[in-house]
Structure formats: structure tokens, C-alpha cells
Amino acid sequence: MASTTTQRPSSSSSSTPSRRYDVFLSFYGEDTRKSFTDHLHAALKQRGILVFRDDEKLERGKYVSKELLKAIQDSKYGIAIISPNYASSRWCLIELAKMVKCMRNTGRVLPIFYHVDPSDVGNQRGAFAEAFGRHEKDPKVDIQMMSKWRAALREVSKISGWHVHDRHESIVVEEISRRVLSGLSRNFSIVSKDFVGIESRVEEIMNLLSIGLDDVRFLGIYGMGGIGKTTLSKAIYERVSHQFDASCFITDIREETRTHGLVYLQKQLIVEILMEREINIWNEYGASRVIVNRLRNKKVFIILDDVDEVKQLEALAGSHDWFGQGSRIIITSRDQHLLNRFVDNTYEVMNLNYPEALQLFSWKAFKKPHPEENYVQLSMNVVSYAQGLPLALEVFGSFLFGRTMDEWKNIACFFHGANMYSSIHKLESFGYYPNINIRVLVDKSLITISNERLQMHNLLQKMGQQIVHCESAEEPGERSRLWHIEDVLHVLKNNTGTDTVKGIVLKLPLQKLEQLNFEAFSKMKKLKMLEISGVGHLRTNLEWHGDPSNFMLSNELCIIEWWEYPFESLPASFQPKNLVMLKMPYSCIKQLWDKRKIFDKLKHICLSHSQNLIETLDLSGFQNLEKLELAYCTSLSKVHPSIGFLRRLKELHLQGCKRLKRLPDEICLESLEVFNLSGCSRLNKLPLSFKRLSSLKNLNISNCSRLEKIPKNMISGMKCLEHLWVGGNATRKLPIGSGPDPIISLLLPDSFSGLSSLRELDLSYHNLSNGNGVIANNFSCLSSLCSLNLSWSKFTRIIDGAWQLSNLEWLDLSYCNLLDGAMPSDLSCLPLLRILKLSGNKFTRIQDCVAQLSRLYSLELDDCSWLQVLPKLPLGLISLSVRNCPSLELFYKQMEMWSSNEKLRSIDGSFVAAYIDYDGTPSCKILRLHPRSPLWSKESFQTFYDLEACGPALVGSGIPKWFKDKSSNWFGRIQLHTDFSSVKWWTWKGYALFIVYEIHEPRSTHPRKRRKLKVDEWKENSNSTTIFDGSNSNLPNFVCQFQVNEVDVTEPLALCAPGFPSIGSSGFWVYIPANWFLGRRVGNSFVCGWNNLKASITTACLNVEVKEFGARVVRDQSDYSEFCQVVNTISPHGLDFKSTRKSSFDLVNGYLFLHVDGPIKSML
Fold it and tell me: Which of 67, 168, 477, 1086 pairs as cysteine with 496 (C-beta 3.0–4.6 A)?
């Protein structure tokens, strides 16, 4: 919310009863309804005062008397407009008597004598005597009632009210409005028990304001975030705003400027001050002139909250002469120097002192001014840690209210940033009810859930960890939770664990080889959670020693996650009846147990990448199992038949099990939602029972190259199916005219009937044509389909109207050898398409119907060697890739159209697009071209660009300061940017990385422990995208993994160090364009916007160690120019190109460059 008017929230004080209305208006309609009463009513409403007026509030058909009496009772003030005929109305007199009764002791009856004498009112003379004479004759009016009316008139006549006789009505109306507003403000106090210490600070600010003097005064309030600047401002606003002609409170100016702009805020100010709704303002200058012209004669009170730029003050309160005499302007900011340029005085908001801090925390945590008896020490620790910061105290207190200590410690130590569902299992293992508690924490804004991951306020996390540390400051083995690497290593090396330890989390890999003791676990008999987790294929750098016969795990364990578990089975004595999760990827496991076990609570088993696992054990005792992961167990040749009867199993992962030949005949998995068999290259058939998987949502049978026998129309009964991958299963090469592959005919019905929930379909590497070459399948009934991959498939043409896919966003028709006319002439049936891939086809031109795709932002036409002319492009296009298209002719009009499109930021040429820049001027926009492409003229060479680049760097001085975000860990994760929500995702340029690594002398270690993974292996196992590899897998290789909103981007970036590094320290820089992220996935969605992005650099090379790395977001041209200068400094050979001509084109190494006067810095 950007602004606050004079409407007030209800009082927090429990001593004052709640009121529905601020004012009750009593009047005689024929005398004043359309004149004075109407003017007064409008003025009160304009001030934000809630008014009851009987002619508009009473509902037709209600008993009038009871409704009126209730409205009077529920009003703070009663205004009686006593006019000449007022007493002639029984209802007016009833209203007056009720107001006097209810408000006699509060002084809230406000009489207005409208063309009457107060003495005539009190003594009932003149018109009032005549009115009572008529009431005496009325049989419905008794003597007792008339007595109350007379007494009410006498009492009201003695009150000092307003006389409307020979005065201007507008002046009287203004006086009454101010009187009511002043009274309401005095009776409402924002200062309550929850705002400890605020009253003294309010008084100090009031002294600085000196309200009542005729000068115009600017006051600045400054202090750190969360210190209470806004709360103080609100208290001041509620206390004094009624004393001014107009007032306005504009909040969150820093954020609102980024979101809506300054003109929006200027309009807010004008509308709230002048109460005008139709304001035609189009720029900052015009708005400033309106503010000056309309407010320079008004006494105003304005609060500008959270200002962080000079331009905001210049636009909203440029100088003192903008406002009338007596005006007061309060500005809050974290920046004292900014305020000093504009204000007359400043006030620093200081932290709460210790007694105040303890009282505030206690109110929030225990709902009383002092701590509970058992929480005194905890409260003192929290108060000391928060250092008097009100926001921290409120957050801590609210979090702890009604919550157990153990629950808080668990979340703070173990689950920040963790997957929500795995965290729920882990919290359950500690005896909590996480589904309920997580909802409560979210409702209180104490944690958030982003992309299914838990996020906690940093202050809460640090506080919880600090409390656990204080359990035993000297010996980690006597603490309840261990998560710091140094503490865990200390306990496992020195065997210092105790029964106090309940949870251990060790994040790997480690920077150096560590030797740990098996026997250390034997002392931790109360251990409930053990997590020794790694990252991808990186070795953990752990070696275990000790007597394996003394290796004993706690039977209290509920969670086990142990990467590279070193034994062939679990200990025979291990009987964890409460086990919920068992994850042992990359283990040496051959068989978990030697006989059948019963674990009723076990929900998740993961043995993926366990190369020694040959067959699975009997799982019939795990009837509550929900997830079973056996992916890439390359020796696994048989699965136990009991797998087919796990009726609660939701996910079954067998991908990459290259020796698996068959599945059990009976698969009765009624709850199964995810089944992954991708890459099971020896699997030759699917059992008939497959058709009974009615709950299945994700089915992946891609790259099962020997799969020939499947149930006919197998998926027609899978009504819930959302994702289907069948790519790469063609059993033999068939000519186009021979019809579709047999597996496709068996698997898919022609009409796809019954698959209305399908969102993603992969049919790549198949013959999909009928006898005439037309694609055989009609996809139009797939109304929910968002992604369709037909790449490398065989068909020659798609007929018009075959695809009515209104929700399709991603379409891949690459390398299908399509000719001219293969695409439909009308693409309006794909209104939401965002990414279109047509690379590797044989057409010479593409129809202009592509321009119908109004949502399209990425078009790929790489390797279209026959393509001569580009189609008319959609105006929303952001990225166009035409690499290796030697026949392509680009015309001047097309280039002019592209350059006028503000959204289009990448036209990727023959191999890669690049920047060229030089000092002092904007960059030259250039495109690298294939040597056979015609040279364009300077005038037609207007386009946008992207660059993927990498180069060696000197590391003598470490990471340059330009790289703001740095990590000194081997496996470091740094946040590249904290707030992409304020930056349109297509406007930033890219990311710059700087990696420092060291090559050690080779040493011999256990071959299983240390193995160099080549780039090809990274691509195969990690589904990574390799760039800059130099086609030399003998060089050091690295993986850059990105996370968007705490979730991994599905394709990591595999890097190979440039140059020829030797033993010792080396370095290189990398530039990754924002365009690289287009089309990549985060979970089941594409990367197209985010709140934050993180990056990590890892390596699996035998003798290579990442020492540190830095990163920075390149947001604009200025950032890019600075980066070019940094690269020019750190690169061994420099990056300057020089030209003697003013501007020219040069062909360098087969690529075209635009040159201008001066040194040109290029990242090549």
C-alpha cells in the first residue's frame, strides 16, 4: 500500500468499547437535508469519518426506533442539527434523548443551532412550544416521554455548540469537521502494550516539529531497517494530522518507486491531499507543477516513508516554498546523508534499551510484560542477540509464542532452504505435526515456501543456532544438533559423541580428505537423524577407519541419508523401528539386509548410483513405502516381485539401470504417480498389468532401445497422465512412407482420447508419419498440452488444423528434415507458444504465419543450411538463433524491424553473438557471421547481441574487486542477486564468473574414491550443457550449477578451463548471457522469471581444487563496459583491437567485426 488517508484503525485498548460509527447525524429532513446537512455529511466523509445518516442507512422494512437507538449507541459522537422544525418530529426528539443519555458523561453531543436561539430551545419557546403543543394532543405520546424530550433540549441548549445564523456555512462545516477529527485522533492511540518505548520517542519528535508555528519545516527520521521509523511516523500522524488543512502518509516509497514509478507516487500525493480523483498527469515535471500550484497556500502534513533516492524527494517535496505556512513534512530513511540535504532537523531512532527490549519480546512471546518462568534464560539470550532491534524482537517473540523449543531448533539448524516434503518427513520423525505447524508459520509470515522449499527469516535461523551452540560451548559432542562442518568432523574424528546428540547434518564434499571413526556412532544412542549428503557425482572426500564389527547405529534413527556408505550391508543389529527415510546414493551396498524386514513407518528408500547392487530385497514388509529410487544402479538385473504390491508407492525410479531385462508380471501399484524407466536399454517388454496404473502422472520410457513388447493402447486408461516421455525408442530404421514405428502404434491411440490431462509429450527419434508422409497423430484433443518434443522424428508435413493446442508453450521440431510447406499456414491455433525450435530442417523459407505467435519469445533456426529468407517475426520476440545458416540472406528492412523492437535483445549468428565496446561511448552492436555470409553495410548492421565467452586469467592478486559476491569454499554457493523481482528478467545482460583453482601433484588413492570424470560423463550423468570445452577432456573440468528460487536449473553448465594450466594456481573468467537460460527448466516450468538466482562451482577432477570464485550480475551496458575493462586487465594477452579507420568491417578468423575509432575491448 502506497498511501494512507485519515481513516483510522480501531483502538487496541480493551477499555474502550468498539464502535461501528464515528458520528450519528440527527436532523429534520425538510429543513436541512439538501443544504447544511448534506454539506456537513460530505465534509466528514472526505475526512475519512464514518457517518450514520438515518435517511441512507436504515434498511427498508426494519423497525425504525430500534435501528436508530442501536446506531446511536454504536456511534462515538452525536451531532444534532437543531432547526426550527426539529422538535416537530418525534423521531428527532427520540434521537436527541438517546444521544444525551449515551454521551452525557463523555462530552460527545455536539449541537448545531441552525437559525434558532439556544434559549428558545432550552425553554421550548416559539416554534418549539408549538411543536410540544401538538405532541400533547398526540395519543401515542405520554407525559413521561415528553418529559425526557424537554430535559434533553434543556441540557443540549447549555452546551457550547455552533450557531448558524449570520455566519458562512462553509466555515461552520470546516470547524465541526476539525473538532470531530481532533477528538477521534485523541481517543485513538497507536501506543499500546505492543509498542514498548514509543511514547517517549513520540514526545521528542513532537518537540522538533513545533506544530503551531507558521514556518514550513522538514524533519528527517533515520535509523537502520526494522528500528521502528514507520511505527513512530504512524503514531505522529494519528496524533497531529487533524490539525492541518490536509494530510497524507505515503509508505514504502523505495519499493513503490521501483514498482510503479515516481509519477504514480506524485498522483497519490495529489489525490490524497486535494481529494480529486481525476488527475491528468503524464510526467514528473507536470506533477511537480501541480503540487506547487495547488499546495503552496495549504497548511499540509505529509509523511514520506522509506526514501532512498534524492529524485524521490525532488519529485514529492522539492523545497519549502511548495507548501503553505505551518506545513510539516516528515521524511524517513536509512540514509542520514540523504536527509541532511533536504531537512531542517533530523532524529535518529535508537535501539530499545534492555528493559524495553525484554518487555517487548515478552509481550510477543508470552502475551505479558515478563517472561515465563522456564523461559527466562532463553528470553535473555534472545534480547541480547537482537541488540534492541524491535523487528527482530517481534519476529522472535511471535515465532516462539505457543511453540516448543525443539521444533524451533530443528527448523533453524537443519531445514532452512530444504525441500518442504522431505522436511515434513524429518519433522515427523522428531514427533511433530509438521503439516499443521508449517501452515501456522506461513500464516504468521515467519517462514515462506518458495518452489516447495522452506525459507526462514535469517534472524530466526541464527538465533536458533546460537541457542544450540550454547548447550555446550566447548564440546560439540554434548549438543543436541550438529550442522557446522568443523563440529561434525570433531565429533566423528575424536569419538566424542554422547546421548545428547539427536541430529547430525554434514554437507559434502569437503575441501580435503578427512579420516573419520566408525565407532563414533556407537556412543550416540539417541541419534534420530543422520545426514551425510553430497553433491552429484563429486566424491565426498571421506575415509572411514576403525573396527567395522564395532560399528553400531542408533535404533532411534528415523532419518538416514549417507552418501557413499562404505559397507556392503547395514549392521545386523540395526533394528530402527521408527525409520522413515533411508537414502544411501553412491553406496557400496550389495544387499541392505540378509533377510526380510518389517518397517511400518518407512516411506522413502534411495540407493541410486549404487554400482554393486545386483537385485532388490523382499520389500513386502515396507507397505507404507511411498518413494523408491534405484536409478543408475548399473549392475541391477532383477527386481523382487514384492515391488509390484506396494500399494502406497507413489514414485518408482529405475532410470539408467542398463542391465535390467524385465519387470515383475504383476504390477498392482494403485497409488503410483511417477514411473521412470528411461535408459533401461536391455528392457524388452512391459507387462500387461501396466495398463492398470490408473493414478500415473509421469511415465518415462525414453531410450529403452530394445523395448518391443508393450500392451496395446497402454496409456489410454491413464486418465491422470501429465508427462509422457517415449523419445529414442525406435527399434529399427523405417522409411517415411511405411507408417509409424510399431511401438508408437501400440502405445498411442491415433486420437489420444482420454489424455486430457497430458501436459508434456516427448516422441523424439520416431517415425510418426502415415503412408503419405503426413504426421499420423492428431494432437488436438490434448487440450492441456504445454510441451511437445518431436525432434529427430520422421514426417514431411503437418496439415492445417491438425493441432488445436491452445495451451502449448514449447514446441520442438528440430532435425526432422522438413521441407518448404511442411509447416501449417495458420498458426493462430497456438496462441500461447513461447519457444519454437526448428533447427536442422531443409526448408529455404518459412511462412510469415510465425508472426501470428504473439507470445513467442525464442525462435531457434540453427543448422538450417538451406534457409535463405527469414519470416516476418512476432513483435514480442526476445531471442532469435540462426547459427550455421550459410545460405541465409538478411535484408535491410528486416534489420530495421528488429532494431526497432525493444524486447528483442539477442540475434545469435553463425556460431556465437558478441559484444564490442570502447571507452566513452555506447557499445557497437555486432554479430559474428559465417565466412560465406555476405558483408552487410554499416547502415544495415543494427541488431542486439549476446555472448558466451571464457578466457584464462592472471590470479596473482586474487579475485578482482569488481566481482562483488565471493566464496572461499571448494563447494561454495553464492547468491548472484537478491531481488530480480524489480528487474524485468529480459533486461539484464548476463553473469560474469571468476574461478581460481589449484592443480596439485598427483597422488594415488583408492580408485573408487578418486576418479576423474570427463566432460562427456558430466553430460551423460548430469544432463549438463557443455560450453567452452575446447574439445579436450584432459583439461580440468568444472560444473556450474544454477538455482532459481532455491530449485536447481535442470541443465548445469559444464566448463573446461581454457589455456594450458600447470601445477599450481590458475584462473579463468566466464561470461554467461541471460539468453542462455531461455528454454531451460526449473522443476516442470521454464526459466522465465525469478526472485533470486544462486550459482555453485564444483569439480570432480582427481588433483584439482577450487580455491575460490566470484560472481556478479551484469545488469546493463555500464556493468558490461566495466567487466570488459576488468577482463582486459586480468587476461594474459589483453583484449584490444585497434583500427585506423573511423568505422569499418574486418573479417578476423572467419568472423565479421565492426570497428570504430579507439581501442575496442572484446571478450574473445
Answer: 477
User: pLDDT (tens digit, 9 = 90+) per residue, 1013-1028?
Assistant: 333 333 333 333 333 3
Torsion sign, CA atoms 645, 646, 650, 651: negative
Rounded to 5 degrees, φ, ψ at 613 are -70, 120
DSSP element (H, E) containing 114: strand 109-114
CA distance 652 to 851: 43
For 14, half-sphere exposure in the C-beta direction (CA atoms, 13 angstrom radius) is: 2
Handedness of CA 553, 559, 560, 561 (dihedral sign): negative
The predicted-structure confidence for 759-787, as pLDDT tens digits, reads as follows 999 988 887 776 666 675 667 788 889 99
Using CA atoms, how far residue 54 sits from 67, 72, 78, 156, 1012, in Å, is: 9, 10, 12, 20, 86
Mean pLDDT taken over the chain: 75
Cell of 251: 509508505
Output the CA–CA distances (angstroms, integers) from residue 905 to 259, 861, 901, 986, in the order listed. Answer: 22, 16, 9, 8
| Distance between CA atoms of residues 546 and 554, nearest Å | 17
Q: What is the DSSP letter of 808?
A: -
Q: What is the pLDDT of residues 1116-1129, one digit of tens each?
A: 777 877 887 887 77
The pLDDT tens digits for 303-324 are 999 998 999 999 999 999 999 9
> Does the structure show a pLDDT above 60 at 912?
no
Bridge partners (DSSP) of residue 810 are 787, 835
With vertex at residue 352, the alpha carbon angle to CA 405 and CA 253, rounded to the nearest 5 degrees, is 95
Higher pLDDT, 758 or 65: 758
- What length does the chain have? 1164
Q: How confident is the model at residue 345, as a pLDDT?
A: 94
Q: What are the tens digits of pLDDT across the range 820-869?
A: 888 888 888 899 999 999 999 998 988 888 888 988 988 888 888 898 88
SS3 label, residue 1066: strand
Ordered alpha helix ranges (H), 558-625:
none
Strand 1085-1086 and strand 1136-1137: the pairing is: unpaired
Tell me which DSSP letter residue 685 carries. Answer: B
Residue 443: count of CB within 10 angstroms of its CB:
9
Work out the number of other CB atoms within 10 angstroms of the CB of residue 210: 12
State how far the Cα of 837 lies from the Cα of 859, in Å rounded to an integer: 6
Which residues does the annotation mark as catalytic? 95
| Distance from C-alpha of 655 to C-alpha of 634, rounded to nearest angstrom | 10
Residue 512 is predicted with a pLDDT of 73
Query: Residue 707 in contact with residue 732, Cβ under 8 Å?
Result: no
Residue 980 is given by DSSP the state G
Q: What percent of the chain has pLDDT over 70?
A: 70
Do β-strands 1160-1162 and 924-927 pair in parallel, antiparallel, or remain unpaired?
unpaired
**What percent of the chain is helix, strand and coil (3-state, nearest 5)?**
30, 20, 50
Q: Which residues have CB under 8 Å from 799's CB, separation 6+?
A: 774, 775, 824
Residue 731 CA to residue 770 CA, distance in Å, equals: 17
HSE-up (13 A, CA, CB side) for residue 157 = 18
Q: Is the entire prediction scored with pTM above 0.85?
A: no
Contact 576, 596 (CB under 8 A): no
**Concatenated DSSP letters of 396-460:** HHHHHTT--HHHHHHIIIIITT-BHHHHHHHHHHTT--HHHHHHHHHHTTSEEEETTEEEE-HHH
Q: CB under 8 Å, gap of 24 or more: what pairs does 1042-1045 form?
A: 1042/1077, 1042/1093, 1042/1094, 1042/1095, 1043/973, 1043/1093, 1043/1094, 1043/1095, 1043/1096, 1044/451, 1044/1082, 1044/1087, 1044/1090, 1044/1092, 1044/1093, 1045/450, 1045/451, 1045/453, 1045/1082, 1045/1090, 1045/1091, 1045/1092
pLDDT tens-digit series, residues 430-462: 555 555 466 655 655 556 665 566 666 556 667
Cα(655)–Cα(703) distance, rounded to whole angstroms? 10
Whole-Å CA distances, 56 to 73, 880, 1035 = 18, 62, 83
